[in-house]
Structures are given as structure tokens and as C-alpha cells.
Design brief:
heterodimer, A: 516 residues, mainly alpha, two-stranded antiparallel ribbon, 3% strand, B: 493 residues, 2 strands, globular
């Protein structure tokens, strides 16, 4: 185990895709590029499994930490590390990426090299967001993820792609300006208190700021992350971006990019600003519930399947946010698990929409019907995925939503009841859409010659469905890693000083790693 | 005396090269005139080599009875100006075809302007500063009108008239300082009378005179720095003058102006003196106004060069945040001053890259209108990529050196308790993202007709790659540049 941890595994996982990008840019020949990109992403996934294998069970704090000076005069270091919460999201990222590349195998023909390069660049940025412990480093990755996504939507998207890409960019960039201001303010406050600049979040946890200052910074951070999630009423960019994005872009956007917002809530918002987090948690929980109900109701009214999935994302992310701000162990762990679940289920939903769109070049529900007979394999995968998204017991979605609701119940019964209403609505729109597409008579002659999934497409869906079942039946595999870290976040809310000490021992050991 | 001339060597090398070019221009046939750029580059190389051996022999000192200084600050800016001039010369090799038989004069004038900038960074005496300032200005007046077409002539005349007024204003401000201190020396290493000494020992009796002098000096130098409200010439000159000259003006001339402002205000007026807060507040207000006006005006530009003109006004506002945040070096950080220097260095790479990309595209398409940039990425992928990287850097987004520059200057602002100014700067960054990224978006729009390949000349390609590489490398590894900037301002401690 020692030789495993002495390798900078996190840096390898983060920057391997970047090397892959360079490789792709150097290669000639479509086939070689595609194979190289896929192999690199698979290799990244395998390396990221080393994090799982070398995990110290029961450890709540950061593991695999690395630290190198970057701009030390400003207190900025390259510091990375993972706890149970970020581990789940790192693995989600590295798992989804090969599937997205596999999906793009035959569907992207225009400027394939750039497309693959952007996807790999995006992977580095996304992994970086989840492992960065220095807030400036986090911001760098946070911003860096914007640019490839902007081009993915703006270049390979649908008819209104330019508008959608710009809206996506402006919304998020607006939020991140506040984030940057808040980050600098934190570094400055650290300087004022200790005489040293530091942007290491583990140092900043211990600031113990006055309440009014906390509140000010709290709302800056809330704005930045709420736009990203997106929390109602900041969600308006999401349906546009999703509908116009190419399928691969949608999968990544819904599956991973949105999680940066909720991850930001857990990693930064709660521990950095414990006082206002507790005071304003009901406000955010209410916004989350409005999002759950609003997203579900709007999804019910959609004619376009992709829009339906996009609005279902608003509802599902509402659940995650509710779980976070219920401030209970069950709900927080459940929220983290639900981030993963949503990444898998909604990613799968977008892929399913993509399969259909590639064949028929339409996503309108009215154009379909009775597909079950024509595409039985597709229908089987779709059924499991729809049920997973609707939260059927035995599948992954149930575990997340159930734990969130248990925690919320301890916090506020009304919130829990309203949340349950959201689950019912979700089952309604999902099963309604399923019935429209797969059941009933096939009235549209254009559907007659539809081919079922080929081997490549089955290879994309099978791992996803397998994970639905694994998480659904053995959630403790994941929850056991998430729980201690979630508990630590909550402890920090109630007793910041003690936890700070806990983290300081960690910081010291990280410095040693850096010097080795 | 001979030792002092030795210290002036890097400047002399450049001037000698300029003289040689003018003489050689008489005998070299017209077809071969381009080769004179080689002489110019050799002159710059000799200058750099001289500077390196001065450092190796440890010759740092105040010389010519304290009218010049060879310190880390001078060294930093000397290398910066050599680099800028070299890049401008290389990138202009294609452009100079438009100058007909005046290529030699162009190279020589660029060198003279560079020598003037190097002198400016090293001067610590009001007379020396003024002479160096005029040396740069007058050559740049000529360079601005080098194309001799309508637009170029208008630009040159505008630049000349406003420049002449600004020189007069500077001189008037200097006269007040001379009246107060009785000397033109900013500092006196021999313990004699100096401006810094007079201000440090002064009381409120000379305050009003100092304030007037301060305002006049800021106004005069503000013209060179192109800050609001002395910015009127900037968009016209950037649009009308030859593109390499615009690049030189936007980077070299601006950097030299900030260098001299750091000398006069940080070294002369002093950060801790009883007028320290006054001039810092003045620059804080100018910073806020410059950023806001520059960015808002840039939003509605349809010409790339005018856009870069207004962007350079806004960027000057960012530099000024650092000036406003200057604190004494006693605590060993001097975040504000080193922030300005660091920002200038990253800005040099960035803005040169941007101007060269615009030049490479304009050389081929013959247009600088933003609407003609649609789909340019297909026809000239390298220039489009470099321009995009530079635009990201100007916005202050990762992965570019511009990110550190913004970060650095904002940190300095927070440190100096200028929270309001940092907030304005952050909001301005958001505004600037609209037009910078709008231009980037325009280049990657899919609907441009494929058209013919617009690959720039090999030398231009090399400079483009070097600028973009600099922007990216200093993002990944900014430590050497930060340390150099900090060493540079410690010369004032």
C-alpha cells in the first residue's frame, strides 16, 4: 500500500486526459484518434480505481494529498486531495467519460479531432474541480471547464446553439465573478488574521469569521454555485443548453458539470460559513423544493423528450440540494450518493435520447409509439433507466432519494412531504413518456425500419445499468466511504474549532508529501 | 565617467545599431532593405548581452550623479523592452512591404523609441526623465504616421498635438517639484538635496503645491499610459497607425510610462509620506474611471483595432489598481508595486500576441472589421488560436498568465483595503468578457466561407507561437516572473 500512495495518483488521474488531448492533437487519422482518446479515458478510469483500492476505510478527512508551491508569494499552492465526497464524484467523472467517447464514435463527423480534444480537456478540468483543495486552483478548474463546454455546445450543437452556448457561458461566468471575489476576500481575511496569505481550503475552514462577513460571502458563493446547479430561479440556462448541446455534451453537462455546484455547497459553503449556512438553510431548502415541483410539472408538459429530461434534471438536482441543506447525516450522505445516481441515470437518459435521435432525427414524443416491438433491447435498457430515475426500490435512485427523505424528515416534516410529492410527479412524467414511446400502437410509418441497439451501443448502456443495480442493492459500498466525510462536514457546522485542528494535522502531512 | 558610460551601454548599443541602419540604408539596394532588420536584431542582442555582463560584474548603482539608476527595476524593464522591440521587428517583416523604400528608417525609429523607453525606466532625475520621454514620443509621432495615408496622418497629427500638450503639462508639474525641492534629482545617494528628501521632510505648507504637481504629472504621464480622461488619442492611433507601431505603443510605450510613474511617485513622492494617501487615492479614482469607460466603450466597437484600443485603456485601469494599492516595502512584500510590474510583463506577452494575430489576419484579409472575422478560424487556425488565448488572458481567465495578473492585482487591492475598487474591477472583468469572448466567438463561427488559406509568414508564425507560449507557460509556472517583479520593485526599498 505504501508504494501505491507514494505515487501522485490524483495528479495522474487529473492530467492523464490532458496528455491524451495532446496525443490526439498529434495523431492523424480518424480511427487512431478515436482509439487513442478512448484508451486514455479508460486508462484514467483504471488509475482512478487505485483511489478506491488504496482507500483508508473510515477515514473522514483528505486522502492522497499532494502539495506543490505554485505562486507561493500569494499563498497559492497546487494542493489536491480527496475525501469520501470527492472520491464519489471523481469516479463518476472517470466512469462516464469513456462511455461518452464511445457514444461519439460514429455520431460526430465534423471536426472530430477538436471534439475529442475538447472532451479530454474537459475531463481534466472536471476531475480538477473535485480534487482541488486550494481555492484558486479550484477556481482555475471551475473556469477551465466552462470553455470546452462552451465550444462543445456552440460548435456541435443544434440550430440555436450559439444562443444557448452564450447563455450558458454568461450565466456561469457571472456567477464565477462573485466566486473569485469571495475567494480573494477569504485569502485576504486569512492574511489579516495570521499574516500569511493562504487559499488552502483546509486553512480557511478555521478562519472563524464574524457573522455579518460570513453572510456577505455566503451569498456570493451561493449565487455562483446555485447558477451552476442550477437552483430555481437560476435554472433558465439549463434547458436551452441541454436541448442544443450534442448528446455527449448533454451527458457531461447533466452528469458531471452540474455536480460542481452541489459539490461546492458541500465542500465550501457549509464548512466555510457555518453560521449563515444554518441560518439560511431553510431558504435554500425551500428553493430546492420549488425546483423539485416546478421541474417536475414543467417536465410533464414537454413534447420534446430531451427537454423533458432536462427539466427532470432541475427536479433531481433540487433533491440533492434539499438533502444538503436539511443538514442531517442521512440526507447529506444521500445527497452525495444522489449526485452520483443522477449522473448515471440522467446520463443514461440523455444517451437513450441520443440513440433515438441518431436514428430518427426527431425527439418529439408524438413521433413515437409502440417501439417496444421494434427495438426490444433498447426498450429494456430504457425501462430500467426510467425506473432508476423514478426511484424504484432495488435500483440506485431509490437509495439516494430515500436517504435524503429520511434525513429531511428529521429536519422538517413538511419539506419531506413536499419532496415525496416530487417523487410521485417524477414517476408520473417518466412513465407517461415511457408509455408514449414504447407502448400503444406504432402509428408513425417512419418508425417502421428502426434498428435495435448495436453492440457498441449495448456496450455503452450495459455498464450503466449494471451500476444502477449494484448501487441499488449494495449502497453501503459507497455510503461507507461517504458517511465519515459527511459527518465531518456536519460536525464542522456545530463545532468549527475542533475540526479545524483535525484538518491542520492533515495539512502538515500534506506538506511533507509535497517535499518528498 | 567611463564606468557610467559602461552602465549606459545597453542603451548605447541600441542607438548605435539605429545609426548604422540609417547609414547602411543609403547603400543597401531597395530589394535588400529587409535585411536591415537583422542589424536591428543584432543591436538588441548586443544590448541584452551587455546588460547580462553588467549584471555578472555586479555593476548596479546610481550613476551620472544620480540622474540614472542601474538597479533591478531598470534591468527588468530593459529586458522587457528588448523583448518587445525584438518581437515587433520580427513580426513586422511582412508588414514593412507597405512602407516602400522607407523600411530602413522604420527599423531605426523602432530602435530609437526602444532606447528612449530603456532610458525612461532608468531615469531618476526630472530632466533625464523629460528628455527620455521626448525621445520616445517624437519617434513615435513619426512612426504613427508612417503609412502616410489619410487615416495614418490623422492619427499622427492627433497623437502629436495631444502629445505636445501632455509634455507641456508634465513640464509644468516638474517645475513645481523643482520649486519645492530646489533640485531635479528624485533621490540623492550622496545625502544631498533631493525631491524624495524634501517631501519626506516637508509639512503641510508645501502640500498644495505638491498636489498641483501630482495632478499635472499624472495628467502628462496619463497620456502615455492612455488612462481616462487622457485617452482620446488611443483608439484613433491604434486604428490609423501601422499595426506593428500600434503594438509597440500599446505595450512598450505604456510599460515605459508606468515605469516612470512608479519611479516618480513610489520613489519620489513616497508611499508613506504625508501625500502618499493623496496620490494613491487619485490613482484609485483614475483606475475605476479608466476601467469602466474603457470597457463600456469597447463593447460597441466594430473594428478590432479600436476594440483593442479601448481594451488597452481598460487594462491601464487595471494597472492603476496596483498603483493605488502600493504600500511601503518595509514589510517585504510590496504587493501593489510588484503587481503592476508583473501585470505589465504578462500584458506585454498578451497584447503583443493579440496585435500580431490581428496583423497576421489583416495582412491577408485586408480588413480589421469584426464582422469580417467570422469563421476566420477555418482559414487561419494558428492566428485565431493565438488571438483566442490572448483574449482569454486579457479577460483574466485561466489557463493564461492574465489570470495571475488579475489575481495578483486584486490581492494587492484587498490588501490595501481598497475593497470598493476591487469590486469595481471584478465587475469590469465580467463586462470585458463580453467583448473579448464575443470576438473569440466570432472567429469560431461556423458560417464563414472556407475561402483561401490565410497562413501567415514563417516569422510571424514564430512570434505568434512565442507570445501564446509565453502566456500559457507563465500560467503554469509563474514563480520566476513573480520573483523578478518583486526583485524589481525592491530596488525602491
Amino acid at each position: 500500500m505504501t508504494n501505491l500512495t507514494s505515487l501522485p495518483i490524483l495528479s495522474i488521474v487529473t492530467f492523464l486526459p490532458l496528455l491524451g488531448m495532446l496525443l490526439v492533437l498529434l495523431l492523424r487519422g480518424q480511427q487512431a484518434m478515436k482509439i487513442a482518446a478512448l484508451l486514455v479515458s479508460l486508462l484514467t478510469f483504471v488509475v482512478s480505481l487505485a483511489l478506491w483500492a488504496g482507500w483508508q476505510a473510515g477515514e473522514a478527512g483528505m486522502q492522497f494529498m499532494e502539495s506543490l508551491p505554485w505562486a507561493p508569494e500569494l499563498g497559492i499552492h497546487y494542493t489536491v486531495g480527496v475525501d469520501g465526497i470527492s472520491l464519489a464524484l471523481v469516479l463518476l467523472t472517470t466512469f462516464l467519460m469513456p462511455l461518452v467517447l464511445l457514444f461519439s464514435w460514429d455520431t460526430i463527423h465534423d471536426k472530430q479531432k477538436t471534439y475529442l480534444a475538447l472532451l479530454l480537456l474537459l475531463e481534466t478540468a472536471m476531475v480538477g474541480v473535485f480534487v482541488a483543495l486550494d481555492m484558486v486552483l479550484f477556481f482555475v478548474f471551475f473556469e477551465a471547464s466552462l470553455i470546452p463546454m462552451y465550444f462543445l455546445i456552440g460548435r456541435w450543437g443544434g440550430p440555436r446553439r450559439i444562443y444557448a452556448a452564450l447563455k450558458f457561458f454568461i450565466f456561469t461566468a457571472f456567477g464565477s465573478a462573485f466566486l473569485l471575489a469571495g475567494i480573494i476576500a477569504l485569502g485576504w481575511l486569512h492574511f489579516q488574521q495570521t499574516g500569511v496569505w493562504s487559499f488552502n481550503v483546509l486553512d480557511l475552514y478555521g478562519l472563524g469569521l464574524p457573522a455579518n462577513l460570513q453572510t456577505l460571502l455566503f451569498f456570493g458563493f451561493v449565487l455562483a454555485f446555485a447558477i451552476k446547479v442550477p437552483l430555481f430561479p437560476f435554472h433558465t440556462w439549463l434547458p436551452d443548453a441541454h436541448v442544443e448541446a450534442p448528446t455527449g455534451g448533454s451527458v457531461i453537462l447533466a452528469g458531471i458539470l452540474l455536480k460542481m455546484g452541489t459539490y461546492g455547497f458541500v465542500r465550501f459553503l457549509l464548512p466555510l460559513f457555518p453560521e449563515p449556512s444554518q441560518r439560511f438553510a431553510p431558504l435554500l431548502a425551500v428553493l430546492a423544493i420549488v425546483g423539485i415541483l416546478y421541474g417536475a410539472l414543467v417536465a410533464l408538459a414537454q413534447k420534446d423528450l430531451k427537454k423533458l429530461v432536462a427539466y427532470s434534471s432541475v427536479a433531481h438536482l433540487g433533491f440533492v440540494t434539499l438533502g444538503i441543506f436539511a443538514l442531517q447525516l442521512e440526507s447529506l450522505s444521500g445527497a452525495v450518493l444522489q449526485m452520483v445516481n443522477h449522473g448515471l441515470s440522467t446520463g443514461a437518459l440523455f444517451l437513450l435520447v441520443g440513440f433515438l435521435y441518431e436514428r430518427r432525427h426527431t425527439r418529439m414524443l408524438d413521433d413515437f409509439g409502440g417501439l417496444w416491438k421494434l427495438m426490444p433491447i433498447y426498450a429494456a435498457f430504457a425501462l430500467i433507466t426510467f425506473l432508476s430515475s423514478a426511484g424504484l426500490p432495488g435500483l440506485n435512485g431509490f437509495v439516494g432519494e430515500f436517504t435524503i427523505l429520511v434525513g429531511t424528515m428529521k429536519y422538517n416534516v413538511v419539506f419531506a412531504v413536499l419532496g415525496t410529492l416530487g417523487i410521485i410527479l417524477a414517476a408520473w412524467y417518466l412513465l407517461w413518456a415511457f408509455a408514449k414511446i414504447f407502448q400503444g400502437p406504432n402509428a408513425n410509418p417512419a418508425n417502421a425500419g428502426l434498428k435495435d441497439l448495436n453492440l457498441r451501443e449495448v456496450a455503452i448502456m450495459a455498464p450503466l445499468v449494471l451500476l444502477f443495480i449494484i448501487i441499488g442493492l449494495f449502497p453501503n459500498l459507497f455510503l461507507a466511504k461517504i458517511n465519515p466525510s459527511a459527518q465531518l462536514v456536519l460536525d464542522q457546522l456545530n463545532n468549527p474549532a475542533a475540526i479545524t485542528q483535525y484538518y491542520q494535522t492533515q495539512t502538515v502531512s500534506a506538506v511533507e508529501v509535497g517535499e518528498r | 565617467m567611463l564606468q557610467d558610460l559602461d552602465r549606459l551601454g545597453p542603451v548605447l548599443a541600441v542607438l548605435v545599431a539605429a545609426g548604422l541602419i540609417v547609414l547602411a540604408d543609403l547603400v543597401v539596394p531597395r530589394r535588400r532593405e529587409k535585411w536591415l532588420a537583422g542589424v536591428a536584431l543584432l543591436g538588441l542582442a548586443a544590448s541584452a548581452a551587455w546588460m547580462v555582463q553588467l549584471i555578472a560584474r555586479d555593476r548596479q548603482a546610481s550613476y551620472f550623479s544620480d540622474s540614472m539608476a542601474l538597479d533591478d527595476f531598470t534591468i527588468f524593464f530593459t529586458f522587457l523592452f528588448i523583448g518587445v522591440a525584438g518581437a515587433v521587428l520580427l513580426a513586422s517583416l511582412e508588414y514593412v512591404e507597405r512602407f516602400g523604400s522607407h523600411k530602413g528608417e522604420f527599423f531605426a525609429l523602432v530602435l530609437v523609441a526602444t532606447a528612449g523607453m530603456m532610458l525612461l525606466a532608468g531615469s531618476r532625475d526630472l530632466v533625464a526623465i523629460f528628455v527620455a520621454l521626448e525621445l520616445t514620443s517624437i519617434t513615435q509621432f513619426i512612426l504613427a504616421g508612417f503609412l502616410r495615408d489619410d487615416r495614418g496622418s490623422e492619427a499622427a497629427i492627433k497623437y502629436l498635438l495631444l502629445g505636445a500638450i501632455s509634455s507641456a503639462v508634465v513640464l509644468y508639474g516638474m517645475a513645481f517639484l523643482f520649486g519645492i525641492a530646489g533640485t531635479t534629482r528624485l533621490v540623492a545617494t550622496d545625502g544631498g538635496a533631493s525631491i524624495a528628501g524634501a517631501i519626506a521632510a516637508g509639512d503641510s505648507g508645501i502640500r498644495s503645491a505638491l498636489l498641483v504637481s501630482m495632478v499635472f504629472l499624472a495628467a502628462g504621464f496619463g497620456f502615455k499610459m492612455s488612462i481616462v480622461p487622457f485617452q482620446m488619442w488611443t483608439p484613433d492611433v491604434y486604428q490609423g497607425s501601422p499595426t506593428p507601431v500600434a503594438a509597440l505603443l500599446s505595450v512598450g510605450s505604456k510599460a515605459a510610462a508606468f515605469a516612470v510613474v512608479l519611479r516618480v511617485f513610489f520613489e519620489g513622492f513616497g508611499a508613506d509620506t504625508f501625500v502618499g494617501e493623496d496620490w494613491k487615492m487619485m490613482f484609485a479614482v483614475l483606475a475605476a474611471v479608466s476601467m469602466t469607460v474603457g470597457n463600456v466603450m469597447a463593447l460597441r466597437q466594430t473594428n478590432v483595432r479600436r476594440l483593442l484600443g479601448y481594451s488597452s485603456i481598460a487594462q491601464a485601469g487595471n494597472f492603476l489598481v496596483g498603483l493605488a494599492a502600493i504600500s511601503s516595502t518595509s514589510d517585504g512584500t510590496a504587493l501593489g508595486a510588484s503587481g503592476v510590474v508583473f501585470f505589465i510583463a504578462t500584458y506585454a506577452f498578451t497584447n503583443l500576441g493579440a496585435f500580431f494575430a490581428v496583423m497576421a489576419i489583416g495582412n491577408r484579409t485586408g480588413s480589421d472589421e469584426i464582422e469580417d472575422y467570422a469563421g476566420i478560424a477555418r482559414r487561419s487556425p494558428l492566428a485565431a488560436l493565438v488571438l483566442t488565448i490572448c483574449l482569454l488572458s486579457l479577460t483574466g481567465l485561466p489557463p493564461t498568465a492574465g489570470f495571475w495578473a488579475k489575481m495578483y492585482i486584486f490581492n494587492a487591492g484587498m490588501r490595501a483595503d481598497l475593497v470598493w475598487l476591487v469590486m469595481i474591477a471584478v465587475l469590469n472583468t465580467v463586462v470585458s468578457a463580453f467583448y473579448y469572448l464575443g470576438l473569440a466567438r466570432q472567429m469560431y463561427r461556423g458560417d464563414g466561407e472556407p475561402g483561401e488559406d490565410l497562413r501567415p509568414a514563417l516569422t510571424t508564425q514564430a512570434v505568434l507561437v512565442a507570445a501564446a507560449a509565453g502566456v500559457c507557460v507563465f500560467f503554469v509556472y509563474p514563480i520566476p516572473l513573480i520573483e523578478a517583479a518583486q526583485r524589481a520593485v525592491h530596488a525602491f526599498a
